[in-house]
Amino acid sequence: MLHLIVIADPASLRYSFFQREVCAFVAAGHAQISLTCIDWRDLVSDSEEWQQHLDQKKGVVRIESPGRDPSILMQLLRLGERSLNRPSCVAPESIDGWIIPPALVHAGLRVCLERLEQAVKARPSLTLQSSPEDILVAFDKNLTSERLAKATVPVPEFFRPSSVDEIVSKTIAHDSDDPWSGAFVKLAHGSCASGIIYLTRSDEPPGRAQTSAMTTRPLSGQTTILQRGDHFFNCYELQILNESSAETYLEFLIEQSVTVQRAVPRPMIGDRHWDLRVVVLHGTPIAIIPRMSRLPMTNLHLGGQRGDVEACRAVVGQRAWLDALDCASFAAAQFRLPCVGVDIAIHRQNGQPFVLEVNAFGDFFPNWTDALGRSVHHLELLKLISSDSDRRNESSG
Description:
Blueprint: E1 2-8, H1 13-27, E2 33-39, H2 40-45, H3 48-56, E3 59-63, H4 70-83, H5 102-121, E4 126-128, H6 132-138, H7 141-150, E5 158-159, H8 164-170, E6 182-187, E7 196-200, E8 220-228, E9 231-240, H9 243-256, E10 258-262, E11 268-269, E12 272-281, E13 284-293, E14 305-306, H10 309-316, H11 318-332, E15 339-346, E16 353-359, H12 376-396
Parallel strand pairs: 1-2, 1-3, 3-4
Antiparallel strand pairs: 5-10, 6-7, 6-10, 7-8, 8-9, 11-12, 12-13, 12-15, 13-14, 15-16
């Protein structure tokens, strides 16, 4: 019997799908698994209940994403504020869609994961599947890109900006030494296309009256951000930027901690460009999900669509396709995480793959199955059972 303890939001779609997969896995006779869920809310509040769950079981601890439930994110925010001795942020009347200060949420997440790691280390009968530190790195786009670049994994050019002027001058300004065709300005600790601006070069030459930050060119682009009063919210419909809103939104992102990433010209099928989410399990790519869109962001919840694997492979050719999978595996190997989602863009002209992001919880594709009808979670469970069996054999030997 394998005891599997999952840190999750028990009311989330992610956990309900995982729970269903475990039940189906057991019903099919693959293994006997007992499943215990520790609510993220209990871990954040450090209630007695969550440690009692650890005391009652021996087995494997799986960390799921805290998700996007506002109550959990607000708990993490307040914990992060206390850990950094920051004053409490004033939340809007309705926090639905509010971009809850991500750097502070990340600080709260760090406290929780360190708390969990210490608790597991104090219980030799438990095994933690994922490295808490590597989860935190994966939740920081700058640290992720720096780690990958140091390991010679190809990543797009990126930098941490300190001002709007720096963003414009280093990327899309007409007088830049190497102007970019487009730039993604992203929250360093954002996810699911939260808080992103896509900047492009305007055809209009410089010369007309502009604000101080726009002296080299007028800005244009699109964003998932919407301002309401003094607060900023995520929006599922991309907003068109003008100069005024662009400067306002860029300043907001810089305050929150941001990364700027050079846009990679992606391959096209018809009028849609595409990139790849490659799910890598213990070093092996197990799922390839092309994401297609007419928009700069290919995220499915923003209107992107899943593409056909064979059609995408045919566009770039077998060599570039295999290079992309190797690149995903190499990127995943830089993290002590059993399963990650690696976002890959293949350059339209030269076939060079680039790692855009590494997702610590990038395994949630409930409608995906392989040629044998196995889901991502099913493959994870098979690997987990195999690894648990190996551990038992080693301990008995």
